[in-house]
Amino acid sequence: MDGHDYLLTSIEDGVGILQLNHPEKRNALGWELHEALIAALADWAYDDEVAAVLIIGNEDYFCAGWALDVLQGTEGDDRNRFTDLALRLMTDLYDYRKPTVAAVAGVAPGYGMDVANMCDITIASENAVFGSTQVKYAMNGFYHGMLAKMNTQRARRMFFTGDPVSAHEAARVGLVDEVVPVGRLRDTALTLAKQIAEAGAELTTILKEVALRAQNMDHIGATAYELRVTHDLLQRGLFTRQLDEGLKRLKSGASRATERSAR
Fold this sequence. Notes:
The strands form two sheets. This protein has a seven-stranded mixed beta sheet with strand order 1-2-3-4-5-7-10, with helices on both faces. Strands 6-8-9 form a three-stranded mixed beta sheet. A hairpin with a 2-residue loop joins strand 2 and strand 3 (15-20). The chain has helices at 31-45, 68-72, 76-94, 111-118, 143-147, 152-161, 167-173, 185-197, 201-214, 219-234, 237-251, and strands at residues 2-3, 7-12, 15-20, 52-56, 100-104, 107-109, 121-125, 129-131, 165-166, 178-180. The chain has eleven helices and ten strands. With 263 residues, it is of the alpha/beta class. Helix 1 (31-45) packs parallel to helix 3 (76-94) and helix 9 runs antiparallel to helix 10.
């Protein structure tokens, strides 16, 4: 496992793993961790060995949000540089060209929750707690990230109050896709990321592009766009290979389409 001082990086079965590792600050995002995440995402964006990315802390905590001591200790141009750095991470991750999974344990306040919301899918441990807590420090949370995953009323309630919600409540309102027992977070999230990565980087990159773009189109435009993507995929060698394999499996009674549903 390689990495920077506060970020451990590794690749496993097509999954790039970004493990936040600054225990003294419970993985709060300061200068170094921002820069390390941006660099790692850039390294893997066009790496065909990586088809999906998993962002995780540990089984006790994910990320304590922004490093508030940085904000307290900076002003003027330095503070502008820090917020510009945060904007770069947010846009790089939110618009990342491959699928991303966040695995959240413990309290994920403010920017910690926002990082999870920038990812495509969030898996939470039962001990996880989510809150748009920036309002308690006279700042604003990442409202667009919340709104992308849950209804307007709940997003605004969390945004205006900063009050936290449990992992199960987060799943009920759409912030989280799955809640798992304490101690099972890494295994569950990595299994999901590997299932996504099975398709390979060529296909996951195309699927992520569709997921990013189609949601902002009207239904006719989205249908036409997605059909053009299908037409493009049908011309690729990847489709021919997968079709041949799929037909062979069907003849043997082992459909790829239903293999995991039977487990």
